[in-house]
Design brief:
- With 233 residues, this protein is α/β, with parallel strands linked by helices.
- It is built from six helices and nine strands.
- It has a six-stranded parallel β-sheet, covered by helices on one side. A three-stranded antiparallel β-sheet has the order 3-7-6.
- Helix 6 links the parallel strand 8 and strand 9.
- It is globular, with a radius of gyration of 16 Å.
- The structure holds 6-phosphogluconic acid.
Length: 233
């Protein structure tokens, strides 16, 4: 877990650095293991990274794409993280369909959909115990949530599963999310955070008060922070 935050002066510099680091991490993983498994985040800060990656030269046939969290909406809904990633990246590069592993939101039962995706993840890592993501990308909300681990929600405390449904009162809706242990199984775990509104959350998450129920991003052991100066404490 690194608490070292080296702020980037601008969002453009953050995204350029994150894109270069992404390409290096993926290329290394494919060279070493023949495959790279990435867990993607929703959000506007990660989305711009995806857009930049669409113009990069990557071993697209060896990368498998998973979602670290998803909204309980149809795949073509404006709020869908799957739709966002397809529009920003996957529809513009030669990714084999079998390499794209969306959350099965078509299952009209959040608990069943979450169990199905939990199994999908386990199978992608040989059905053994913990996954071993090559890279987990995460955003952070101004309420210090990450993925769909929102303050005061049940999923924060789940350690028995990799992926769960999570009722979020403030949205009056279910979300889907990796659990903290599933996130922390990544070799590389990056936060991508920008904007003045995030500064208090970043300060809380890095601060002396350990309170994951209030600051769920504290559950994560990131290996890198990509933070703009306006969001850095
Ligand atoms: C989601 C994300 C969520 C997001 C943060 C930051 O589905 O919304 O997974 O965790 O990353 O809310 O989003 P922004 O970068 O847009 O502020």
């Amino acid at each position: 877990m690194t608490k070292t935050v080296s702020p980037y002066p601008t969002l453009a510099e953050l995204h350029a650095a994150a894109a270069d680091a992404f390409c290096q991490t993926v290329t290394d993983a494919v060279r070493l293991n023949g495959v790279c498994r990435v867990s993607l985040s929703g959000g506007s800060t990660p989305r711009r990274l995806y857009e930049i990656l669409a113009s990069r030269d990557l071993p697209w046939d060896a990368i498998h794409w998973f979602w670290g969290d998803e909204r309980n909406v149809p795949p073509d809904h404006p709020d869908s993280n799957r739709r966002m990633v397809r529009q920003a990246l996957l529809d513009h590069v030669p990714v084999p369909n079998e390499n794209v592993h969306p959350v099965p939101v078509d299952i009209d039962n959040p608990a069943a959909a979450a169990i199905r995706y939990d199994t999908t993840i386990r199978n992608a890592f040989g059905g053994a115990g913990e996954p071993r993501w090559d890279l987990v990308l995460l955003g952070m909300g101004d309420d210090a949530h990450t993925a769909s681990l929102f303050p005061g929600t049940e999923a924060i405390r789940r350690t028995d599963r990799l992926f769960v449904e999570n009722w979020v009162e403030k949205f009056d809706a279910f979300r889907y999310t990796l659990t903290a242990p599933a996130i922390n199984s990544g070799r590389e775990i990056w936060f991508l955070v920008s904007g003045e509104s995030k500064r208090p959350a970043v300060a809380d998450v890095l601060g002396p008060r350990h309170d994951p129920d209030t600051f769920p991003s504290q559950l994560v052991s990131p290996t890198r922070w990509f933070v703009t100066a306006d969001a850095a404490p």
